[in-house]
Amino acid sequence: MVAKLKIKDASGWTMFVFGVLALLAGLLGLLRPELLLSILGFSVLERTARAVGDFTLVFMTASAMASFNIGAYYILAALNDLKPFYKWTVPYRCLTFVVFTTVALIGMGPPASSQWAFGN
Length: 120
Prior knowledge:
The protein has four helices and no strands. By secondary structure, the chain is mostly helical.
């Protein structure tokens, strides 16, 4: 039995592109976590300068693995036109938006650099 993997509509392409971005970000985080930290606007310490008990790179590895896996799920869902999967992701994408927006508004994230600031 040969499966036809094909993206059929805009929602499929959206899922596919998001999946590719998540997979690539995950791969980057697994291979070069410091580079991903700098892209995200965090200050990067040399590995030898990290204090005992600083698990930033362990957290980055775990997050990157999750991103890689989620990217693969989204790509496979898009290629197989799994509309129920698309629907399942909506509440979690909304929750992600609310959490990240809240983190930004209360100042928990890194300060915006001029590179990423709006209007520049």
